[in-house]
Design a protein that fits this description.
Layout lengths: L2 H14 L3 H20 L4 E6 L6 E10 L8 E3 H7 L8 E5 L5 H30 L5 E10 L2 E5 L4 E4 L15 E12 L2 E7 L3 H11 L1 H5 L2 E9 L3 E8 L6 H6 L4 H9 L4 E6 L4 H8 L7 E5 L4 E6 L4 H5 L4 H10 L2 E6 H7 L18 E3 L3 H7 L4 H10 L1
Parallel strand pairs: 2-3, 7-9, 11-12, 14-15
Antiparallel strand pairs: 1-2, 2-4, 5-6, 5-8, 6-7, 8-9, 10-11, 12-16, 13-14
Length: 392
Amino acid sequence: MNSEFLEALKDLEKEKGIAVDVLLGAIEAALISAYKRNFGSIQNARVHIDRNTGDFKVYSQRNVVDEVEDERLDISLEDARKIDPRFNVGDIVENEVTPRNFGRIAAQTAKQVVVQRIREAERNIIFEEFANREGDILNGTVQRIENKNIFIELGKTEAILAPSEQMPGEDYKHGDRLKTYIVEVRKTTKGPQILVSRTHPGLLKRLFELEVPELQDGVIELKSIAREAGHRSKIAVYSKDEDVDPVGACVGPKGMRVQNIVNELNGEKIDIVKWNQDASKFVASALSPAKVVAVEVWEDEKVARVIVPDYQLSLAIGKEGQNARLAAKLTGWKIDIKSESQMAEIYPEYNQLEQGDSNIDVSDSYSTEADIFQEQYDITEPVSITENKEEK
């Protein structure tokens, strides 16, 4: 080894990001093993590589002791002080024992170590890069499909999209570009294992942050998400600035911002509602696009009874209870939905109540199923569109 070898290591440092000292330290450790293996030595040894010239030397190491048990490992204090009077018990005495024909073995060992360390360092660099990005969004290309697992190419490595993290109804093909959410990064002997998801609620959050500058700036806060991937999602947003409409900002001009997200999620319907500290108003908004007549809440039990018009009952509950289920997840409240006629049966005096003041305005909400239809056809009652669709 010589100065040219050191220059090669410096080039590797620039190209691969592996420090020269790290490589030299690994080579020194490997040369010790090679020395013991080839020269049958059980004594302690140390290899030093000169950082300026690249020359290497092998030193035997013996401990300074009062009583010598093995001359290959120990040296008496008297003999040690003949070498240097400053030695004391517990110190280590070194003697150069570099074999004459050790150069060829050293070169071969150095090559193997460098290759191995390059691989390990690349794996560590990739691991650190992606470990710091857990909870972030990734762009990748479908590379191959094995046992229903989708392997997504990310340049120097690949991510795994497991069957449980794949969206229902999505068909993945080689070469498809996908946005995925990093769920976990594991360190394995074969390198980092990056587990990603298309169903995680965090994917929806990150997509909105990419599309809505106000979310990135912190003007708007995404308070909660409820998602049934591939079918429907609800998000609750809040604006710290009274002049900024959080729902409108997420919808975007002509619905373009939310439509881009819907397209990315292959048509998954998204309801955007305004978060409200008042639980009754928040629960009412969460049931969008259904109209709500009144909401009664029990704070201690976090239970809400919602009253809707008869013709809105099926819409409020949703197909197979989906709308009510998502609203419950979004708000964290148990929601009991009753129609006006059901309430009249339970409480005959219900029809005599003045309910005008109990009506809750849920206009601060947006449903991709109803409102995009409204914008396209200039219809003022988006809820009725959804109802008519269901009736048909």
